[in-house]
Write a structure and sequence with these properties.
- By secondary structure, the protein is of the alpha+beta class.
- The protein has a domain at 128-194: Alpha-Beta Plaits (2-Layer Sandwich), CATH 3.30.70.
- The chain has helices at 5-8, 20-32, 37-49, 58-65, 72-84, 103-117, 140-152, 172-181, 208-211, 214-237, 243-261, 278-303; strands at 55-57, 88-93, 96-101, 128-132, 156-159, 162-166, 189-193, 305-306, 309-310.
- Helix 3 packs across helix 5, helix 6 (103-117) packs across helix 11 and helix 10 packs across helix 12 (278-303).
- The longest helix is centred in the C-terminal third of the chain and has 26 residues, at 278-303.
- It starts with a helix and ends in a 15-residue tail after the last strand.
């Protein structure tokens, strides 16, 4: 990925607001941890484009992502593959292409980004959601797809065909959507279970370490905080902020946070080790969002447009992210 030093450090002494130290941080991030093109497109679409209606011209998306190291070929290829996978659909207008989220793409974004922006849910009554999908009723391919989808929603695999997570009423609708979308609602069995302490058997809670790799997730969160904490402090030290830098760092921040949270089963505190680092990572994202969102939104409005003209205002749910921005 070719990076433009001039673009990143533009006009440090003139009319521009770009911060040279932030520019160097961005350049180092893109050189040392270059994001995969399709994955970054997914991040930007979910974080920045979906709240504004979910539709943009491909040419505008190419301009928006160029400073993040994605050239035109990478963006076109990524968008084409996302369309092939059912996330996006294209509308042609002469030689221009307008891409928008499909209903399936919107559902996937809602599931993934609900986990990113929603405040942690600490309410747990000790019950479990259990999904049974034995090989006798599901093919190996169906079970693999079910395991993948359930894993994104915090389910751990106790055996090859048994998945479980702490039950929360707020997330039960998501489980129904998953099994219906995969077409297995008549074959998979969903139970709500509780331990029976009077029988003195081993509890489901004691099996948590067998189902989820919480130590690895904790290490990811700590690396995330160490990586983005210093650049947040640099933004806090500024009296004026550059809209493009706000957008770029926000995109890299949410991209990294999304990858960590998708590995996080988001277990209740009763099932986690002491000094769990997720709240620190969440607070870092919340603080950065609150500090920079107005400037990042200015950058989006200047770079993107839809078939009807300027990018529409963000939907109300955008301002509910991270408990309210």
């Amino acid at each position: 990925m070719a990076l433009s030093t001039a673009a990143l450090e533009r006009d440090a002494s003139g009319a521009g607001l770009a911060d040279a130290r932030i520019a160097r941080w961005i350049r180092r991030e893109l050189e040392q941890r270059p994001p995969k093109a399709k994955s970054l497109v997914v991040t930007v679409w979910g974080d920045a484009i979906a709240p504004h209606g979910g539709a943009v011209w491909l040419s505008g998306l190419i301009r928006l992502l160029a400073p993040l190291g994605l050239n035109e070929r990478l963006v076109r290829t990524s968008v084409y593959r996302l369309a092939q996978e059912g996330w996006l659909e294209a509308q042609q207008d002469g030689r221009r292409s307008l891409y928008r989220l499909t209903a399936t793409g919107l559902r996937r974004f809602e599931h993934a980004y609900r986990r990113i922006y929603a405040p942690p849910d600490g309410d747990w009554d000790g019950s479990w959601e259990v999904v049974l999908a034995p090989g006798a009723v599901l093919s190996a391919g169906e079970r693999r797809e079910l395991r993948r989808e359930l894993g994104w929603e915090g389910f751990g695999a106790l055996t090859a065909g048994m998945f479980l997570r702490p039950a929360r009423a707020a997330s039960r609708e998501t489980l129904g959507e998953i099994v219906r979308a995969l077409g297995v609602e008549r074959r998979a069995v969903v139970l709500i279970a509780r331990d029976a302490p009077e029988l003195e058997f081993r509890s489901l809670q004691a099996l948590a370490g067998d189902c989820w790799h919480v130590a690895a997730v904790a290490a990811e969160y700590r690396r995330f905080v160490a990586r983005f904490g210093p650049v947040l402090e640099r933004f806090r030290a500024r009296t004026d902020l550059d809209p493009e830098q706000c957008f770029m760092v926000r995109s890299l921040l949410i991209h990294a946070f999304r990858r960590v949270t998708l590995h996080d089963p988001q277990l209740p505190a009763e099932l986690l080790p002491a000094a769990w680092p997720s709240p620190d990572a969440y607070a870092l994202c919340r603080d950065f969002y609150r500090l920079t969102y107005k400037f990042a939104e200015q950058h989006l409005a200047a770079r993107l447009e839809t078939r009807d003209g300027p990018l529409p205002p963000a939907a109300p749910y955008f301002y509910e992210r991270f408990g309210g921005i």
